Amino acid sequence: MEILNSQIEKHYHQPNLYDDIINRLKELEVDLNSVTRKDIAGVDEFHVRGAEVSRELAKIVNINNSRLLDIGCGIGGPCRMLADEFNCDAVGIDISKEYVATASRLSELVGLNHKTKFIYADATNLPFQDNEFEVVWTQHVQVNISDKLKFYSEIDRVLKNNGVFIYYEVFKKGNKGVNYPLPWADESRISFLEQSSRIDSILQELGLVKKQSTNQTDSGIKVLEKMLDRITTWGAPRLGLNVLMGASTKDKITNLLNGLKEGQIYLESGVYERQK
Question: Is-above-0.85 flag for pTM?
Fold first, then answer.
């Protein structure tokens, strides 16, 4: 497991990430003494549709003033949004030390370090007590998790009674293959795509009750098409997800888009409640 975790962390690693973001803000002539969430929005949320879909998910259930855990928090954009707009006590964990360090410094930069906290941790061995959170949240995370049962068991463990689990994930359709590289993996050895029906079975076996699910594929395709068109026409933006995906950004977006359009994979969000 340690070897696998190391491979996953290496995939996401971008050296001196915070300094890179700061330098790009300077090039965009942003005043570093008054940086806002809007200024870093282009790079802040590493999943399809970014803050737009995060805000939609947050409005599905009443999460205002909740203690919330974001598993696979990336550089912290969702936590900052949830803390800022929904007054959540937002805790994020990630397997990338560089992401965790960057998330902490970005929260300080935009004045949200008092409402957010970021921890380097393994999603299958969460460093929290039982029944600690009202909400647990994942976005494009389980694609890198091989032990699905352990992963979702940990989510169940840290949720309070009547707490909610909100997800927005990439799932495979049948046994169709995908082309790499993709945003979460340059090759198959760190990619663990699964059908949502299996995840549903695991969650129900754990005692979580499904409240709703939504196919997000069409919305995702539209956004990715626009993103790819902009990159093809104008090149990578100064401060976009290319900062996180590196030189293979265009290939990753192309393969993700083709996978969604050809029905190899699909996007789905949903909510489960812990009724114990």
Answer: yes
